[in-house]
Specification:
D-Maltodextrin-Binding Protein, domain 2, signal, TRAP_DctP_sf, DctP_fam, disordered N terminus, 11 strands, five-stranded mixed β-sheet, C4-dicarboxylate TRAP transporter substrate-binding protein
């Protein structure tokens, strides 16, 4: 009788343990973006999701939220820092408040090609700054090679020199490198959430904006502006970041898989950006907006002091060294 009772108890314990301990610990990464699903970044995130889940055998699940479903980029970063399971694709300049050197990725007229930005984003020097980011902010940078394209000036009047931007209220990203670049170009920097840009232009709360070609079409800004001037003043190189608390739940083996796929899909999304950029500008022009080239020399001269103003001259020298120029 005692033996039977013991056997029953043992079987019950085994069953209980079996129910309590799954074969693997599943971790979900929730990643949001302010951009539309058909934007190259959105497409890249969906591909990243599928490949991560397959490569980790479902041990890491990625949920993607488009069109500011989780908030504006700054709000998502704040949520992640507070410990929420949230990640996003962000311009690196927003992260410079934690690691000032990171602002160099958004410096004006720094990179001539995506290949240069990709090379620097994987350099030892840059990755060291990425390691500091986790310590200083509670954010983990998975990859910094998600290219969104050249930022151009969107206005209601023709622009040919920085003087034409005098007094123009231009929406930009609320990080010092962006604000000082737009100010140096002659405009009045006005940071507001990306999701509010269309209505702000429509209602006249701002006079202008600056954005990459695919974002102009994705947000339908061609409906509320008259001119696109191809300044390309900043090459928008962005980073995929996640909450450190969610990241630390992932095994080292799976962390390597996720990082490698973040870099690989960053390149995929970036190539989409490059491929779709000219088409986007053609679509904008077809909608009745004037798309113009411009002499960049006056704009480059106007922003040349931004590096010294924000104490980024040493970082610029590091970029030039890595790129061999």
């Amino acid at each position: 009788m005692k033996t039977t009772v013991k056997m029953i108890g043992l079987c019950a314990a085994v069953l209980t343990l079996g129910m309590a301990a799954p074969a693997f610990a599943e971790t979900t990464l929730r990643i949001g973006t302010v951009l539309a699903p058909n934007d190259p970044m959105g497409q890249g995130l969906e591909k990243f999701k599928a490949e991560v889940e397959e490569a980790t055998n479902g041990e890491v699940v990625v949920q993607v939220f488009h069109n500011s479903q989780l908030g504006d980029t700054t709000e998502m970063i704040d949520q992640a820092r507070a410990g929420a399971n949230v990640g996003t694709v962000t311009d690196v300049a927003r992260l410079s408040s934690f690691v000032p050197s990171l602002a160099i990725m958004s410096a004006p007229f720094l990179f001539d090609t995506y290949e240069q930005a990709d090379k620097f984003a994987l350099s030892e020097e840059y990755l060291e700054w990425g390691d500091q980011l986790k310590e200083e902010s509670g954010l983990v940078m998975l990859a910094s090679n998600w290219y969104q394209g050249p930022r151009h000036v969107l206005t209601q009047k023709p622009i040919s020199t920085p003087a034409d931007l005098n007094g123009v209220r231009m929406r930009t990203i609320g990080a010092p490198i962006w604000i000082e670049t737009i100010r140096a170009m002659g405009a009045e920097p006005t940071p507001i959430a990306w999701g509010e840009v269309y209505s702000a232009l429509q209602m006249g709360n701002i006079d202008a904006a600056e954005a990459q070609p695919t974002a102009i079409t994705g947000a339908k800004l061609f409906e509320v502006i008259k001119h696109v001037t191809k300044t390309g003043h900043i090459q928008l190189v962005t980073a995929l970041v996640v909450s450190a608390s969610a990241w630390d739940e992932i095994s080292e083996e799976n962390q390597k898989i996720v990082r490698d796929l973040a870099v690989e899909n960053g390149r995929h999304a970036s190539q989409l950006t490059i491929d779709l950029g000219e088409k986007s500008l053609a679509d904008v022009e077809a909608a009745g907006v004037t798309v113009s080239d411009v002499d960049l020399a006056p704009f480059k001269e106007a922003v040349s002091g931004v590096y010294g103003l924000l104490d980024l001259e040493e970082e610029a020298a590091i970029v030039n060294k890595v790129l061999g120029r």
